[in-house]
Design goal:
Helix content is 82%, strand content 0%. The protein contains eight helices and no strands. The longest helix is centred in the last third of the chain and has 50 residues.
Length: 261
């Protein structure tokens, strides 16, 4: 009677769990649980391009720079008038000598800037600052791809897409450091959307693979314990004189599995 009641309750819970409302509730719970992974994926993918969506300077800064430029232009006009009025004087001659020295030093500065320039950057140090992280990401990604291909008996599409996306990002920015010009803003926006979609999709596939693996492990563990506690006794697989030892080992194994030992 008791077994019949338990079976009835199990059948009822199974029936309740398969209603559309419960299925929707389970789906929402899983989505909420995995939402943090998708948010992290979007943040990581757009972090490479986010600077292109932010203005270089605020409107207040642009306005004050323009005001300074206009004021500087007025100052230059006034200075030219003062210099014109001082032509032929000793003071004007000293000014010309100082200007000649300044222009000569400035020409040397420009020459040194030209010599220290590396590709599109003001110096080799600045180039390394931009190129270093991209080549580091490239090496890291290639390493992970090799490890994935060598160690995985079954390739997970989510891993391949994720590594391929990171590989593309690293090559994208290595190419950016070497090219003579910058990409257009529309190019950054397009690739930011592509990268975000690709990484989010890879996370979806990874979570799906994880869920499938966990379900497989649950099924395997269920079959294992079903054999230990049901099939072994029902089919009399263990010899009668070994059953006591077998049952003790079975309990010990179960305690270890659930962390009671």
């Amino acid at each position: 009677m008791m077994k019949s009641t338990q079976s009835k309750h199990k059948a009822q819970s199974k029936e309740i769990a398969t209603t559309p409302e419960d299925q929707l509730s389970i789906l929402l719970t899983k989505t909420k649980k995995n939402l943090k992974y998708y948010i992290l994926a979007v943040v990581c993918s757009t972090a490479f391009f986010v600077h292109e969506f932010v203005p270089v300077n605020s409107k207040e800064y642009v306005d004050i720079v323009k005001a300074h430029s206009d004021s500087k232009s007025d100052r230059s006009n006034t200075r030219e008038q003062v210099l014109e009025s001082q032509k032929g004087t000793n003071l004007y001659q000293k000014y010309l000598e100082a200007k000649t020295r300044t222009d000569k030093i400035w020409a040397e500065v420009l020459e040194l800037q030209k010599e220290e320039k590396f590709l599109n950057f003001k110096s080799f140090q600045q180039f390394l600052g931009e190129f270093g992280w991209a080549i580091g990401l490239l090496i890291y990604t290639v390493f992970n791809i090799v490890i994935t291909l060598l160690s995985s008996k079954k390739l997970i599409s989510g891993e391949i897409i994720l590594h391929s996306t990171l590989l593309f990002i690293s090559i994208y920015f290595i190419n950016w450091t070497i090219l003579p010009g910058d990409y257009s803003k529309s190019t950054y926006i397009i690739f930011a959307m592509i990268m975000s979609t690709s990484i989010v999709f890879s996370v979806f596939l990874l979570l799906k693979a994880k869920r499938e693996y966990l379900n497989h492990m649950k099924s395997t563990i269920h079959s294992f314990f079903h054999f230990l506690y049901k099939d072994a006794d029902k089919n009399e697989i263990i010899k009668p004189e070994k059953r006591i030892v077998f049952r003790k080992m079975r309990v010990d194994l179960t305690n270890k599995a659930i962390g009671n030992d």
